[in-house]
Each structure stands twice: as C-alpha cells, then as structure tokens.
C-alpha cells in the first residue's frame, strides 16, 4: 500500500523529527530555489509569456507573489495557482536549480513553487510548518524517483515533473493539515496528472513541466481537502503511477582533443552534440566541456544563444569525444585534454560539484544566489532577498517574505 504509506508518513512527520542536517539542507534548497525563480523570471521570455497568458480577468484574487516580477503590484501578484505555475517555470528556466543526483530530479522547483503560493494565500504560516511541509514534499519526490530510476527516465519521461506533482501535493497537503485519507487522495489526484517528456528538452516547455507540476500538485491537495476522490492505490496498482510511468598553465587555443569517460546515463541526459540555442546547450556535455575549458565556469551566462553560436565555442565542442563506461559512477567523470605539443592533462572528477559528497560551501551557494538575483533586481535588493530566504525557517509568517526585498 505505497499510496497509504506515503500519506501516513507525511501526515505524521513533525518538525521535531527533522535533524539539524536536514533543516540546513532544506533551508539551502529553499533559498537556492528562490534565487533561481527571481533570476530566471528575467533571464528567459518563458515566465513572462506564461504570466501574460494566465494573468487575466479569469484569474482569482492576487494572493501570491510572482517572485521575479519587478513591475506594478498588479503584475507582481496572482492567484495561488498562477503563481505556482509562473514561479515553477522561472525557477527551472535556466536549469540552474538543485539536483538530486541519484535520480537527477530537480526537487525544490515543484514543491517550493506550490508551497509558497499556498502559504501566502492562506497564511500566516510559521517557518517550522513551512519547512516541515517542504521536506515532506521533497522526500516524497526523491523516494518515488528512486523507485523508478533509471528506467522511467530512459524511456523518455521528465522525472522532475512526473514526481514533482506528487511531491507538491504531499507538501501542500501537509501545510493544509490534511489527514492521512485525504492526503492519499491528493497523491492520487496528483499522480494522474503526469506531465513531461524529454522531447521538449531544449525548449521553453521543459520549464513549463515544473510549473505545471507545482500547479497540479497544489490543485490536487485543494481538491482532496474538499472531498474529491481518486484511487486508494494510485501509486502501486497494476495500472497505477509506478507501473506506467580546470586545469591551468597551458593555452586552450592549443587544445587538440578532449576525451571524456562517463556513465552511460550522462549521455542519456546531455547527449546533444551540436546545440544551436542556449536551451539546447544545457543538455550537451560537449558544450559543458567546451565552456569549462574556455571560461572556467558553467553558469547561465555560458548557456546563452550568443555563447552557443560563438565560433570558438563551436570549434572547441567538435574536439570533445565522449566514451561510455558502466563502471564510472553517475556523479563521476574522467577527463583527458591533449594539446598540440603532445602534453596531456588528466583529471578524475570523483564527485560532481553540488553532489552530496561534494556540496557547495555556504560561500559558493551565496555567490550562486547573488549572481542570479543581482542580474534581475540589483545588488541591494539581492542582499535583502538573500537575508530573507536564508532565514525563512525562523519566520513567524513565510507568506510575508516577498515584501522583505
């Protein structure tokens, strides 16, 4: 009875159950999501298109923030469902959000987008209640992902959104204090709203998956709260969700060849050899290797259309050759760079930066947040946003967070 077990676990989870390590990770994940949502709103057209399309006379009262909107109050707030959609899109549009390496799920986007929207709409909500619900939703996503990965991903599903709607439903149900039977119904309603296929990677629609998952999970919890029914065995039934679903010192101009040895799953996710847009480049290990050598970093600034089409970058990409090796862990890589004079530099990446074994430091995570948000709202407001989101766990009302920056 996976559906009931998940609902029961989420219902009984308390703030006291959460260790210091879990709370620290949850707080980092939440404010990292906020940085991506604020910065992402202005970096790509998709969030604004979604807002312009959905914010209409048919929308409900503007109760919830569009985090990155800098215009009038009328454009900075929407009803909870629209806010969940737009913030979800904005948080993922740069593909710069957090990643659960074992499943390659981006867990914060669907959950936080739904959770903040409902917290603002139905507050006040304490930081402790908010973080408990956030952890419940993220844990639900990742546990579901582990149960179906990699087969689920390999056949073409976008695992962040297919698990994300359920994670969002669990989180919002927790915040609404639904009992176990109602939470189970919310899980079922969310699970039938499966969304997201990999054919859309490299387009605006990939980020739409996350926004829609947040919106779907939010709706599922609200429907269940009001007596809407689904299937008691939505996850585990025969036809249920589980079953159907740098080196320095040499001149990079003299690079002759770049050899990468990685786990086969890396090419499943990032196998685009010749991307033509910034969106496509996010799914190209060839582009990532090229900009790593040329720029020494890989931020959204290196995944723009202009950089992707730069002749030097294009030339460097053609020098990258990738070999698959089942023995290489999914978070590791072997890199060998050969130069024209015969010199070879070898690098073994034991654990990818940002993984559990090689996490970003506090300073690195703040730098990531500030770079994203400063581009969107300026340095002074970015500092205030950083202070607000990093201290969300101690707030009496998280729903007031948008007004703090």
Describe the structure in your own words.
- By secondary structure, the protein is of the alpha+beta class.
- The chain folds into two domains: 2-243 and 361-404, 2-methylcitrate dehydratase PrpD (Orthogonal Bundle), CATH 1.10.4100; 252-342, 2-Layer Sandwich (60s Ribosomal Protein L30, Chain: A), CATH 3.30.1330.120.
- 54% of the residues lie in helices and 7% in strands.
- It contains 19 helices and six strands.
- The protein has helices at residues 2-12, 20-43, 46-54, 73-76, 80-92, 108-122, 127-148, 151-154, 159-175, 180-191, 204-225, 241-244, 264-270, 278-281, 285-295, 305-308, 311-317, 362-377, 379-390; strands spanning 64-65, 77-78, 255-262, 320-324, 333-339, 344-349.
- The strands form two sheets. The chain has a four-stranded mixed sheet. Strands 1-2 form a two-stranded antiparallel sheet.
- A hairpin with a 4-residue loop joins strand 5 and strand 6 (344-349).
- Helix 2 runs antiparallel to helix 19 (379-390) and helix 6 crosses helix 11.
- It is globular and about 70 Å long.
- It starts with a helix and ends in a 15-residue tail after the last helix.
- The mean pLDDT is 93.
- It comes from Trematosphaeria pertusa.
- GO terms for molecular function: lyase activity.
- Belongs to the PrpD family.
């Amino acid at each position: 009875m996976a559906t009931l077990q998940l609902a029961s676990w989420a219902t009984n989870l308390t703030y006291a159950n959460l260790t210091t390590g879990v709370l620290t990770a949850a707080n980092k994940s939440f404010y990292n999501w906020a940085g991506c949502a604020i910065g992402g709103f202005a970096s790509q057209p998709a969030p604004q298109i979604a807002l312009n399309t959905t914010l209409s006379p048919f929308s409900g009262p503007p109760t919830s923030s569009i985090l990155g909107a800098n215009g009038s109050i009328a454009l900075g707030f929407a009803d909870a469902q629209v806010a969940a959609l737009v913030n979800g899109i904005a948080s993922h549009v740069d593909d710069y959000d957090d990643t659960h390496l074992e499943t390659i799920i981006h867990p914060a986007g669907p959950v936080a987008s739904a959770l903040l929207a409902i917290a603002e709409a139905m507050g006040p909500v304490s930081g402790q209640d908010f973080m408990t619900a956030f952890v419940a939703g993220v844990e639900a996503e990742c546990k579901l992902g582990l149960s179906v990965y990699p087969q689920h991903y390999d056949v073409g599903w976008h695992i962040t959104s297919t698990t994300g709607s359920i994670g969002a439903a669990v989180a919002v149900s927790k915040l609404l204090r639904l009992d176990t039977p109602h939470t189970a119904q919310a899980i079922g309603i969310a699970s039938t709203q499966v969304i997201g296929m990999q054919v859309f990677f490299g387009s605006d629609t990939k980020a739409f998956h996350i926004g829609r998952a947040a919106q779907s999970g939010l709706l599922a919890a609200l429907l269940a709260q009001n007596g809407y029914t689904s299937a008691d065995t939505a996850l585990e039934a025969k036809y249920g969700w589980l079953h159907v679903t740098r080196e320095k010192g040499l001149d990079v101009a003299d690079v002759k060849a770049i050899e990468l040895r990685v786990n086969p799953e890396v090419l499943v996710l990032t196998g685009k050899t010749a991307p033509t847009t910034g969106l496509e480049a996010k799914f190209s290990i060839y582009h990532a290797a090229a900009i790593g050598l040329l720029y020494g970093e890989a931020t959204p600034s290196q995944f723009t259309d202009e950089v992707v089409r730069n002749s030097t970058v294009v030339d460097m990409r053609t020098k990258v050759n990738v070999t698959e090796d089942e023995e290489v862990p999914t978070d590791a890589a072997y890199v060998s760079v050969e130069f024209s004079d015969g010199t070879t530099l070898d690098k073994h990446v034991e654990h990818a930066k940002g993984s559990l074994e090689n996490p970003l430091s506090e300073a690195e995570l703040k730098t990531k947040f500030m770079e994203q948000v400063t581009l969107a709202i300026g340095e002074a407001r970015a500092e205030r946003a950083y202070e607000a989101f990093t201290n969300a766990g101690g707030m009496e009302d998280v729903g007031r967070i948008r007004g703090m920056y």
